[in-house]
Specification:
Elements lengths: L20 H4 L10 H6 L1 H4 L17 H10 L3 E3 L7 H11 L6 E3 H9 L6 H10 L7 H23 L11 H13 L3 H5 L5 H23 L6 H18 L5 H12 L10 E5 L6 E5 L2
Antiparallel strand pairs: 1-2, 3-4
Length: about 290
């Protein structure tokens, strides 16, 4: 019989039984070993704390995000689907809305996410991204805002910056959106219908917000954030990847985590391995400290 692993602080990874009470009341267990550690990430955790914890609702696009999105929304972009693994290519073709020329238009992709007709991006979708109406159901709002940020950041990486973008760049919600949606690609059914996976999608968002906050604090050199804290935060995120789909081998684990690691500068050169979770046959991601 396996022994459950102790709860870990979301910031430092040390065992603790102390949890965020506001989140716990709403069905989400996030553990912090001290008020000081919770305060470290409070700037962004407060946006998803309490009533917003269970069904994470990203903030509306900023005026600057909306402006940049509008600038590129009608541009044709090559799909590049043939360069992707078969499953990712299949999802991309369905969610990316390639036209007959094999090109993707951001505006049409977001019109489909918003369940609005062709040509409605400027008059309906963009205003919804800036001021989501109360009539939007929780999942349409989540998907629309998350996909808009994900697409814009992906566009910038490929066509504007033309390099891998570290999580310290652009807005934190753009980075969370992109890492979230790429995580779901491990499970075709989940990528198409997130509603049955509400708890998991919320936990992924919470852990990514904390992970990226720690990375940004370390990069700012204003606080003494140890690299070990960032490693532990990534391991807790990687544990959730196994809930999307279990790691079948070390190679599978490598494929599931490499894309994310490449975008977290402090972790790109850190060695890691697949290990068996104590008392189980489950493979988990762990850094070699």
């Amino acid at each position: 019989m396996s022994t459950p692993e102790p709860y870990k602080c979301c910031v430092c990874g040390e065992p603790t039984t102390k949890r965020c009470q506001a989140c716990a009341k709403n069905g989400v267990d996030l553990f912090f070993c001290s008020p000081e550690h919770q305060k470290l990430v409070w700037k962004h955790h407060k946006e998803v704390c309490g009533p917003n914890a269970r069904h994470v609702s990203p903030p509306p696009l900023t005026v600057e995000e909306a402006r940049k999105l509008a600038e590129v929304a009608r541009r044709k972009r090559p799909g590049h689907f043939d360069r992707l693994p078969p499953l990712v290519s299949q999802i991309g073709r369905q969610l990316g809305v390639p036209d007959a020329c094999g090109q993707i238009e951001i505006a049409r992709s977001l019109e489909i996410a918003a369940k609005t007709p062709p040509g409605s991006f400027e008059t309906v979708v963009l205003p919804q991204l800036l001021r989501p109406p109360p009539s939007l159901d929780v999942w349409t709002r989540y998907l629309l805002l998350t996909k808009a940020r994900h697409i814009l950041l992906a566009h910038n990486e490929v066509y504007v910056d033309k390099k891998v973008l570290d999580v310290g760049t652009y807005t934190i919600w753009a980075q969370v959106a992109r890492l979230q949606l790429n995580s779901y690609m491990r499970n075709f059914e989940m990528a198409h219908n997130l509603a049955p996976h509400a708890r998991l999608t919320s936990m992924i968002c919470h852990r990514l917000l904390i992970l990226i906050t720690l990375v940004r604090l370390k990069q700012s050199n204003t606080t003494g954030i140890p690299l070990a804290w960032i490693k532990r935060a990534f391991e807790r995120f990687a544990d959730l990847l196994t809930e999307i789909k279990a790691f079948e081998s070390e190679q599978d684990m490598h494929g599931a985590t490499l894309w994310h690691l490449q975008r977290i500068l402090p972790l790109t050169a850190q060695p890691y391995r697949a290990v068996r979770q104590p008392g189980t046959d489950k493979l988990v991601f762990r850094f070699i400290d």
